[in-house]
# Entry
Amino acid sequence: MILLKHMLNHQTHLTSIFHALADPTRRAIVERLSLGPASIGELAEPMPMSLAAVVQHVQLLEQAQLITSQKHGRVRTCKIEVATLDMLENWLGQRRRQWEHMFDRLAEVLDDHEQKPKLPKRKKP
Amino acid sequence: MILLKHMLNHQTHLTSIFHALADPTRRAIVERLSLGPASIGELAEPMPMSLAAVVQHVQLLEQAQLITSQKHGRVRTCKIEVATLDMLENWLGQRRRQWEHMFDRLAEVLDDHEQKPKLPKRKKP
DNA sequence: TTAATGCTAAAGTATTTACTTGACTATCAT
DNA sequence: ATGATAGTCAAGTAAATACTTTAGCATTAA
# Structure
């Protein structure tokens, strides 16, 4: 809603996701929420910082769409947004596939020249 | 080598990896290197910044062990370190598995109480 | 040997980050 | 209604970030 324009840009979204996860406190929040929903207070309780600081971390995670939250009464309940983790995994998967493709082509070249490959082969053509 | 103490701490390593990828320039470098090795100059050529800036990005990626590099003569050749991408994928996978487990338990509870589940079931016990 | 190339190292700067504290606003319990 | 609870907002600060420019140092080519 607030973030439509922001998230239209895939690169910008990736940046905000990685940035959000580049902090131990925020990763701890994500890890906690992957076990089930929790309130701000529950998230803050084990943390060595003020509740206001935790709120700011939660806002950042929400902007990155790694979590969502809803207020019931005076309690804000947060839960994880798995689709965004999936998107990250996809990005990593693409990188690995490209690397494997490059790796295979390298192995082929070494093969064609009938040299001893220094790297193990990965695919039979 | 320089980083033994640094990387002994898994959390610290995760932080440095996510932080390294939280920058479009550095992601572009990783994407380029997933297609095959390249020199600093080749990496810098399409970038809208000084070569010195690119060197600093490369150093950060190397500290995070996302890439490695070697100097041959005056040319430094960089290549991707897939094992570290794997590690990241593992972290994400763990989060998803925990979430799925929680999700399944939630579905079971809804089932046991014979209410209409608001969320689709995911596993048959 | 000289000059160009490819990179490195250091210092400086504007911006962003991760907090803090304190004042405030709803909501819930008594 | 009163007070305690759960969270929000704003302003301030020390440290970290993403660059820049300048100077330098090996390596290679002429």
